[in-house]
Every structure is written in structure tokens, then in C-alpha cells.
């Protein structure tokens, strides 16, 4: 078996570990849009011929296995043993072979070029922990989507080793730190999204990263083109998230507002309330005045009622 596509069903339970033990020749494993839970079994890492792994839109938890680096078919930039499979076994195109895959944020059908497509999609799950630096060994990968999880830590520098990447989506996680300078090596990117993390610092300049829309960076603390915030002398973003006003000046104004409120309260309390509490004659005069005002109001409302 070369293709196992069970996507868009209502399958539950754990991902079967026997897939890695029994289906060693798999080229495509697509379990997208089901209700699989628990962790990704390490046995998946034994699928040395695997080109596409799509586990997106499930309820998978746990960490991304470091052994993904063993997926050797994704580690080389050219995989002729799979790409030529079609011509060797079906030279007259007597049998149609294809698959629908989600790549670059859209669904496309691949047939004759299927052997040249490589991708990992783990999006919209509950994966935790850091992005393993071992993913950087998959230098033949064209698409990597880890969006919509609970991933933490910094983006590994080794991601920059994946020079064939055309699509990279790490959005909607809890990643922090700076965008690795090694991203300048990703010259083939045409789909890129780091939005809604906690990334900081300057977007690496003089790279193709400036060619993407600022929406690819929104929801972080980044500065420099293409976002509107300028970096300070240390190459850091002013306070606040992308899309806000100039950070430092606004923060200063807000602090002075708080100071004025506190000072006004203190002066009002000690200037009016404190004497009423501490000086008995003032307190009696104040209460007497309130009583007179209350009597006048009662007369006034009684007159209107008549």
C-alpha cells in the first residue's frame, strides 16, 4: 500500500501504531479532519518512504516526535525512487493515481507530480512542547504547517536548513523569541505565516520575508518592514503588539494619567474627607447642612406633586 487516506471521517481513538509497523511502503498518510486523540506514535517515524503526513484537524496532544528526522524520504531534495514509480509501473497511464492534499493553505489534486510533493501538516491540534530542532534535518520538505497548536519555546534555527520550503505556517501558537536569522536561506517561500505568537525583535532584513503582507506577522511584538513599527537602536520593538501606536510615548502618557488620578484622590481625601473625620465641629456642620438640603428637596418635590 502506497496511499492511506482516511480523511474527513469521524474516526476516534489513538492513531494506530501498527501503521508504522505494517505499512512500511506508505508514501502518503492522510488522517486529516477526524477525532483522533492522544499522542503521535513513534512508529510513524519508521515510514522511510513517506512523502506526505497529514494529521491536521484532530485532537492530538503531546509533543512532536523528535524521530521525525528519520523520515528519510523527506530529508533529500530529490526522491527519484518514488517520482519514477508511476512511469515504471504504469507507463501507458492505464491506471489513474492521485490524491487531494492541503498544501500552501489550499486544497489541490496531485497525480503525475505526486512523487515530488513532500509535506507535514499537524495543524489545529493540541500539540505542546517545543518545535524539535530535528525537523530541520528534513531538507527536502516543501510544506510545514504546525499552526493552531499550543507549541512553546523559540523557533529552532535549524528550520532555516529546510531550503526547499515553499510553505511555512507556525501561526496561532505560543512561540517566543526572535525570528531566526537562518530564515534568510528560505528563498522559495511563497506562503508564510507567523501571526499570533509572542515573537519579538526585528524581522530579518534584506530577505524575502519583507515581501509578505504584514498580516503574516500580526499579533506579535515585531518591528521593521513590513510591519508599521520601527525598531529602536537595539533592534527591538517598542512596547505593545503589532498594529498599535508608537509605543514609548503612549506608555509615558498612560503612566502620567495614573499618577494624576492617584494624586487627585489623595488630595481630595486629605483635603475634604479627612477633616470631616478628624474635626468634630466640621462633621456636625456638614451633617446639619445636608439635613437642610434634604428638607428643601422634600418641600420642593411635595410642591411639584400638588
UniProtKB/TrEMBL annotation:
The chain crosses the membrane at residues 256-279. Pfam families: LRR_1, LRR_8. One of its GO terms (cellular component) is membrane. Signal peptide: none annotated. It is found in: Membrane. Keywords: Glycoprotein, Leucine-rich repeat, Membrane, Receptor, Repeat, Signal, Transmembrane, Transmembrane helix. It comes from the Eukaryota. It is a single-pass type I membrane protein. Belongs to the RLP family. This is LRR receptor-like serine/threonine-protein kinase GSO1. It comes from Durio zibethinus. The gene is LOC111281435.
